[in-house]
Amino acid sequence: MSHTAEIVAVGTELLLGNIANTNAQVLSQALSSLGIDVRWHTVVGDNPERLRQVLDIARQRADILITTGGLGPTYDDLTKQTICAFFGRPLVLHPEILADIRTFYEGALHVPMPENNTRQAELPEGCVVFDNPVGTAPGCAFESGGVHVLMLPGPPHEMSTMLQRCALPYLRSLSKEVIVSHDIMTFGMGESSVDQLLEEEMRQMDNPTLATYAKPCEVRLRATAKAPSRESAEAMLTPVVAHVCAVLGDVVYGVDVRSLEEACFLALKARGLTFATAESCTGGLVAQRITALPGASQVYRGGVVSYWTSVKADVLGVPQALLDAHGPVSEAAARAMAEGARRITGADLAVSVTGAAGPDPDERGVPVGIAYIALAAPEGTFCRRMDAGRRRRDRIQGLAANHAFDLLRRYLTGLPITALDATHP
Amino acid sequence: MSHTAEIVAVGTELLLGNIANTNAQVLSQALSSLGIDVRWHTVVGDNPERLRQVLDIARQRADILITTGGLGPTYDDLTKQTICAFFGRPLVLHPEILADIRTFYEGALHVPMPENNTRQAELPEGCVVFDNPVGTAPGCAFESGGVHVLMLPGPPHEMSTMLQRCALPYLRSLSKEVIVSHDIMTFGMGESSVDQLLEEEMRQMDNPTLATYAKPCEVRLRATAKAPSRESAEAMLTPVVAHVCAVLGDVVYGVDVRSLEEACFLALKARGLTFATAESCTGGLVAQRITALPGASQVYRGGVVSYWTSVKADVLGVPQALLDAHGPVSEAAARAMAEGARRITGADLAVSVTGAAGPDPDERGVPVGIAYIALAAPEGTFCRRMDAGRRRRDRIQGLAANHAFDLLRRYLTGLPITALDATHP
């Protein structure tokens, strides 16, 4: 039997926009991986009457109800009381939990336990206790009229710790199905073009399903299968992933890879190569994206942000005569920048970006959205021209950085390097 | 009359946990600032029947209903059709919107418009059109039986652009009152320390209100007043803002400034100065943040990402003997990096960052979270040591970049430069 879940977060701070509901995201990922269908997220404030109404709706449409928040000791946390009253479960004091909370305060924090923490040791009669090794508020689960109710704490690290240690084992015992997903990552084609390449029947499949997500500068396709075992789910997914990759061709930069920079990182590491950067209009974004990855120093030596033309000449050694003749936003400048970065850092490869990110055209009148992206390698230097149109500045920068990584991954995987039409739909 | 709102996000990717519902957070902040009470967030998948049920519940309990998502051109975006059918509003083709979308593709992106984008030009009869300057899907608003329905796109930057330009003016017109807010931006003090400095009565005020928002590496305070006119709201806010600034002192880096880098940008521009960067553990983040601002070339010349120690020596000219004696993560290295960046770029000022961002300590055993941040100026070089503890890599990088900008803004505004205790609670 397949389960349907609703995640109810209780907290006025969510409704005021002080924080995002990341707990719902973490829970949804975990539940999906168990084959539990999450159909609703609801956020409601610390208000007993409105919480009761939300519980009443949830109980009618879902058979797994997970609440987050409202287990703390303060007086505005009435969630536990409200939920227990709604499901007709009296709260009872668990002396062993009270002892644990007291030990946490006296042993770990070296202070006496505040008296209102006693309330945290009260849990619904007959529940499964979820203990909280990183905080004081325990959670719990109970079943009432066919609905499984799980109460988890609000602070994200307490919630995710309790999820892994207690809630997932509890939920796993409810289900026989497994869900497996694979992400097919593409760069260089818009969402509508991807959709038009894929046949209607691919997009309408029921199990496995295929969904398209447009990230700011990329398109990701997720294939998901539900089956009695991981092996049978994988067997359903293999032909789908292979078909999509074949149809989309070399715009696919990886399956289950998180980003273009991660694809480059893995390919560079596998081949024992390092690279460097020379950036003008992206202003350090290519460098920042690769160095956001732990272990980046294995593949990345460093680079230059040559924002002013003088820095292109003085630090990267781009000849002044070349800059005068072609301008700083030109194929010639991009090539010389990449070659300069490779020379001064001693890296095996270097990528460069120079362009007009806007909002104004560059000083020589190069229109907004134009950029030249080059790759210097032992075999020679490759260059691609991008025309991103009059997009927002951060989008142009993001696209240009993606092109730099795309040149790199094409070089590293032996694909045609500059063939891509770099006009963006 | 006071309004009650529900935010309904439509998207299976939210229920699968692929993304967090940040749109709901952004909308909640904006609506709260207008004095509109957001009472529920709901997330539902791309499923017409379940969406109809959610709309039916929302219509009964809220008088403002804001939907996000489901306006795209792909086949799984049935939100618009479902909402219009539910509220009995036929969809009609708006030729002027179609022309805009075609212009966007042909004019700005230089490609023909894919045929399925035609659907995006269909909007409910008699609605107020919200145009979309950063994407193709327009939004809209209409009133039906006393409920105001606003349909906004799902991609966060499109949603927030349309919110600012169209949805907020629409919502503001529903109320007779004016709401004015000012943001007091701070860096260098944790949220609880800020709270403890402010008196109870400041935090409990009703109108104006004072709210604290902890961003990943900063604390923002927002003072908001509700009044019949802008002038009277401003008159209520002036003493509150002045008081908070006086109490918090020089951790306040600006009022209604968006970020530390913007504060630096404005101060540099006012004084006609330029700066450069030399980055190790931040990997280009300082450069990327300043160049994200339009017009950055007025104040920023460029810099070096000296990720490998050899790049510190070869490109920035840090003496090898110094690096051998003190290590690349040291006060001496930070000072020499800043001085090197200043020298090779010819900038008036330069900032540098070198540290251990983790997850592993640096090769000489410097613990994760330690960084040295230096500022080279004509008067000499200043250095600050940061201890961010074992935070996540991106948090350590973000904090270190903030320190670089903080040194710069303190220098530019004549404040004590390195006095701040840079241990992070």
Characterize the structure shown.
The structure is a homodimer of 425-residue chains. Chain A has 425 residues and is α/β, with parallel strands linked by helices. Chain A has three domains: 4-172, Molybdenum Cofactor Biosythetic Enzyme, Chain A; 178-255, 2-Layer Sandwich (Alpha-Beta Plaits); 260-412, CinA-like (Maf protein). Chain A is built from 15 helices and 17 strands. The mean pLDDT of chain A is 90. β14 of chain A pairs antiparallel with β14 of chain B.
Number of strands of chain A: 17
Count of individual helical segments of chain A: 15
Name the CATH homologous superfamily of the largest domain in chain A: MoaB/Mog-like domain
- What strand order characterises the main sheet of chain A? 2-1-3-8-7-6
Work out the radius of gyration of chain A: 27 Å
* Gross morphology of chain A: elongated
Q: Which structural class is indicated by helix and strand composition of chain A?
A: alpha/beta
Overall mean confidence score, pLDDT of chain A: 90
Per-chain topology:
The structure is a homodimer of 425-residue chains.
Chain A: E1 4-10, H1 12-15, H2 22-33, E2 37-44, H3 48-61, E3 64-68, H4 79-86, E4 91-93, H5 95-109, E5 122-124, E6 128-130, E7 139-144, E8 147-152, H6 156-172, E9 178-186, H7 191-197, H8 200-203, E10 209-215, E11 218-227, H9 230-248, E12 252-255, H10 260-271, E13 275-279, H11 285-291, E14 300-305, H12 309-314, H13 320-326, H14 331-345, E15 349-355, E16 370-377, E17 380-387, H15 393-412
Parallel strand pairs in A: 1-2, 1-3, 3-8, 13-14, 13-15
Antiparallel strand pairs in A: 4-5, 6-7, 7-8, 9-11, 9-12, 10-11, 15-16, 16-17
Helix pairs in contact in A: 2-6, 3-4, 10-15
